[in-house]
Design brief:
The chain is mainly alpha-helical. It is built from 18 helices and ten strands. The longest helix is centred in the middle third of the chain and has 21 residues.
Length: 510
């Protein structure tokens, strides 16, 4: 239920029927004669109505609920605003239905007509991208839609000089790529644009954008031009003469030295942990690192991390796990939902699955149940400070980063708990088919490609060999969980969120 609705209902119970007809003064912050604040987003601007404020499609909207601003009318406006917010959150909000007399409807209709006339007059790269995005978003998931929007906006704001080979830095004369007529885009310009993007700094210091990232950025432009060709607005697709990028890894600016400069360079580490294949970065934690990090944790966060390490769930799946998903008798949990960018959805590939509980994973659940009970509205792992469901990965990363620093371990995203699970299972000789099924992969081909270096063979007794090999380690984990359970949750102030940026978007994770 959207935040705010319970509060609105609670307000109505604090007033007597006679008080509901009392007028609320213009600009009042509290209800008359009380210390009860008027909820945020609702205000009395005149004596003929109550104004509500909300955000729809990224634009702040203001609507007036006509009528005398009595206490009862203000409360009705509060409930109206909460209904609007709920409908927006569910994706079923209709401006015309909720506010049929709104001036905003007519303003948007006029703007839409003006845009259509402008498109008919001249199709720019920017308008072509906007039209493509309007068509493409309904056919993809929420996360892809967000990415398409981000890529489209970024392309439109690039300097138009990126289409020229004479201005390799992309300084130009201030004109934007989105303002260029689509008919003027050439294969040479596209090649220059891709080359310019490949030289831009990557997310990590000392790197440039990978070819995969550049391909993703170019997807809206390619789709927009193909649409114009089909519509007959332009006669030839310039992408037909552009050699496609093949997905090479990002280039480190620290490694651009010539071959002669590296004649006696140190040999690479053969058995290091870091491994990267096809832009999928895998950095599992060693057993020593796991022990060191867990030694800095206690309470529910310790339970959560142990469970994560021994189930290999995706972040959104871990956050969205409920007590009703646990089959205690069968030693399994049912993965049937995932939280991604504030939206509850099916797991990746729409693939629901059963995940077998190993000894430490079950022990972590048992300790969590002892510690918190089935509180937190049914969610298993919640924010230990607010006792509410985790909103996203950010604060989990913050807490994990602090523990890694205290343990003297090089910080890697806690998503690598999933990679750690895969590497431990495979290096123990577990059947790759079983591991792929546990982790929710569409098939096991990528499992071989990414985690192949940890495979030792195939074992038909899936889930048994790893239990035997790690029996002593699991016993020590059980002791740690029991000892820390007595301590309870960490008593400390709330930790600020860590902005993981694009790297934190698990929708594109393996």
């Amino acid at each position: 239920m959207p935040r705010g609705i319970p509060k609105a209902k609670a307000l109505s119970l604090q007033f007597k029927r006679a008080e509901l007809d009392v007028l609320v003064p213009k600009g009042a912050q509290n209800f008359p004669g009380t210390a009860i604040p008027i909820p945020k987003g609702v205000s009395v601007r005149s004596f003929t109505g109550v104004q509500i404020e909300f955000t729809y499609k990224g634009i702040r909207q203001y609507e007036t609920i006509g009528g005398k601003p009595t206490v009862g009318h203000v409360q009705a406006a509060v409930e109206k605003r909460e209904r609007v917010l709920q409908l927006i959150g569910l994706g079923s909000f209709s401006y015309e239905t909720e506010f049929p007399e709104s001036r905003s409807i007519h303003v948007r209709a006029h703007a839409k007509n003006a845009v259509e006339k402008e498109i008919q007059a001249i199709e720019t790269i920017g308008t072509a991208l906007d039209s493509w995005l309007l068509i493409a978003k309904p056919s993809v998931g929420i996360n892809s839609g967000v990415d398409y929007t981000r890529y489209t906006n970024r392309l439109k704001l690039l300097p138009s000089s990126t289409l020229s080979s004479t201005d390799i830095e992309g300084n130009g004369d201030g004109a934007l790529l989105g303002d260029i007529p689509a008919s003027e885009l050439t294969d040479v310009g596209i090649t220059c644009l891709q080359g310019w993007l490949l030289r831009q700094p990557g997310q990590k210091a000392g790197t440039t954008l990978s070819e995969k990232r550049v391909r993703n950025l170019m997807t809206p432009l390619r789709g927009a031009i193909e649409r114009l060709v089909v519509a007959g607005i332009i006669q030839r697709n310039p992408f037909d003469n552009v050699k496609p990028l093949k997905g090479k890894k990002s280039i480190s600016t620290k490694n651009r030295a010539s071959v002669m400069d590296e004649l006696d360079a140190p040999l690479p580490i053969l058995d290091g942990i870091r491994f990267k294949e096809n832009d999928i970065e895998v950095e599992p934690f060693s057993s020593d690192e796991v022990a060191a990090i867990l030694g800095q944790l206690s309470g529910s966060f310790l339970n959560q991390m142990v469970f994560w390490l021994w189930t290999g769930l995706r972040t959104g799946e871990l956050i969205a796990l409920r007590w009703s998903d646990v089959d205690w008798d069968g030693d399994h949990v049912y993965i049937r939902r995932s939280l991604s960018r504030g939206h509850m959805k099916l797991p990746k590939f729409d693939k629901k699955r059963w995940v077998k509980l190993s000894v430490p994973a079950r022990k972590a659940l048992e300790e969590q149940l002892k510690l918190t009970g089935k509180s937190g509205d049914g969610w298993i792992f919640t924010n230990p400070y607010t006792k509410n469901m985790w909103a996203n990965e950010s604060k989990i990363c913050s807490r994990f980063k602090k523990a890694a620093e205290l343990a003297g371990v090089t910080y890697r995203r806690p998503y690598n708990c999933r990679h750690t699970y895969a590497s431990v299972m495979l290096s123990s000789g577990e059947n790759p088919l079983y591991v792929a099924e546990q982790m929710g992969h569409a098939d096991w081909s990528m499992l071989i490609k990414v985690y192949g270096r940890w495979m030792k063979g195939v074992d038909l007794l899936a889930g048994q060999r790893v239990a035997k090999m790690h029996d002593s380690h699991w016993n020590s984990l059980a002791a740690l969980l029991e000892s820390r359970h007595a301590v309870g949750d960490d008593v400390e102030t709330e930790i600020e969120s860590v902005d993981e940026g694009e790297h934190g978007d698990e929708e594109h994770e393996f």
